[in-house]
Write a structure and sequence with these properties.
With about 170 residues, the protein is α/β, with parallel strands linked by helices. It is built from six helices and four strands, in the order βαβαβαβααα. Helix content is about 40%, strand content about 15%. It has a four-stranded parallel beta sheet with strand order 2-1-3-4, sandwiched between helices.
């Protein structure tokens, strides 16, 4: 009896990332973008390109102007970008709006740093601490993803009334 084994070698492709810098003049944007490039590499992403925009103030809905957002969307489609990394902290609304326009996952600098910590954590306690930090950071960003039907104790609103005690 002959046994043949077939092996398939799968090459793991790094995540293709687009870095986005919004320069409001408050810091050295070029140095910050260079650091973001290093952080993306540390997380295992391939930083394909960067897009920058100078603004007096950030757009509250998308952080960047509508024309720049269209440019980001078009670039992501043309270059098969998997991830957009912004070099500043985004609000949950901004993340949602950018993802809706680009159809690409969006993270900000803080989430990238937390992901790097998660990759580097070795001890059980360290992994738990990093996961807790990630969950705390992501909690306000989970709006609209099913969280409105659960109370703080994880109960559905229908069952909450049964657990209330009436005191005289």
């Amino acid at each position: 009896m002959e046994i043949f084994m077939e092996y398939t070698i799968t090459e793991v492709q790094p995540v293709r990332a687009l870095l986005v810098e919004v320069d409001t003049g408050g810091y050295d944007a070029e140095a910050s973008l260079a650091e973001l490039f290093e952080l993306a590499q540390s997380a295992g992403a391939e930083a394909v390109a960067s897009i920058s925009q100078k603004l007096q103030r950030l757009d509250p809905a998308t952080c960047v102007g509508s024309g720049k957002l269209d440019e980001i969307r078009d670039y992501c489609q043309a270059e098969e970008i998997d991830l957009i990394i912004f070099d500043l902290e985004l609000s949950p609304v901004q993340i949602r709006n950018i993802e809706q326009v680009t159809d690409v996952r969006v993270i900000d600098r803080t989430m990238l740093i937390l992901d790097i910590f998660a990759l580097r954590a070795k001890s059980r306690e360290g992994k738990i601490q990093v996961e807790l930090a990630q969950l705390k950071y992501m909690m306000p960003r989970l709006t609209g993803k099913g969280t409105q039907d659960v109370t703080s104790r994880g109960q559905k609103p229908v069952t909450v009334g049964r657990n209330l005690k009436v005191s005289d």
